[in-house]
Structure to design on (209 residues):
């Protein structure tokens, strides 16, 4: 590998270390706005002044974290759809996958949840964009599974599903295993009711035509 290649690899490793360090420092009590550039750099193993070789400022680091969180969530849901090819409930597998994301990557979920309603407009826009990507992909899947539903209705249903699971997810972070199971079962019931209502609504609209 050339010298330039080695430097590029090292730069990417350091950038990765900064992102990981920032995620590691998020807690239930500590949001991104409370993170210190100096503390993030120290955990990443670099001098604070070296931070600027990788990110313009902390906001740019935060936006990269939001993008990554949304991407990983969508990747997990795509994997869930592949699992559905072997059979199983769409609602159950989707909810289980979402809960797995929260449990295995709580700080990524905290970031999406907090920044979607945070004080920074740039962060709110980025978090909203990632959530809308998720909604759009889910809407496509809903319409594929239910051809009788219009794209507009599939999107409305998808928004409802995502709102429910994100609201439930905010409570999961503070629950024990048994409480999470109870909540998961309740969310599955709510999503099934919403899905059934969407089908009935679509049929009623056809009857009016």
């Amino acid at each position: 590998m050339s010298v330039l290649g080695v430097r590029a690899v090292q730069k990417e490793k350091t950038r990765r270390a900064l992102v990981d360090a920032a995620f590691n420092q998020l807690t239930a009590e500590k949001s991104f706005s409370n993170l210190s550039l100096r503390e993030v750099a120290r955990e990443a193993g670099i001098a604070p002044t070296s931070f600027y070789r990788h990110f313009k400022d902390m906001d740019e680091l935060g936006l990269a974290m939001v993008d990554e969180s949304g991407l990983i969530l969508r990747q997990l849901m795509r994997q869930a759809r592949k699992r559905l090819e072997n059979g199983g409930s769409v609602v159950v597998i989707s909810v289980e996958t979402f809960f797995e994301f929260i449990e295995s990557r709580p700080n990524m979920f905290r970031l999406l949840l907090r920044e979607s309603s945070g004080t920074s407009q740039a962060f709110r826009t980025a978090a909203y964009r990632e959530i809308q990507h998720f909604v759009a992909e889910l809407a496509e899947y809903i319409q594929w599974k239910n051809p009788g539903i219009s794209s507009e209705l599939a999107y409305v249903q998808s928004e409802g599903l995502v709102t429910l699971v994100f609201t439930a997810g905010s409570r999961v972070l503070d629950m024990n295993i048994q409480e999470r199971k109870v909540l998961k079962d309740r969310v599955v019931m709510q999503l099934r009711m919403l899905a059934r209502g969407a089908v009935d609504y679509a049929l009623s609209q056809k009857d009016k035509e």
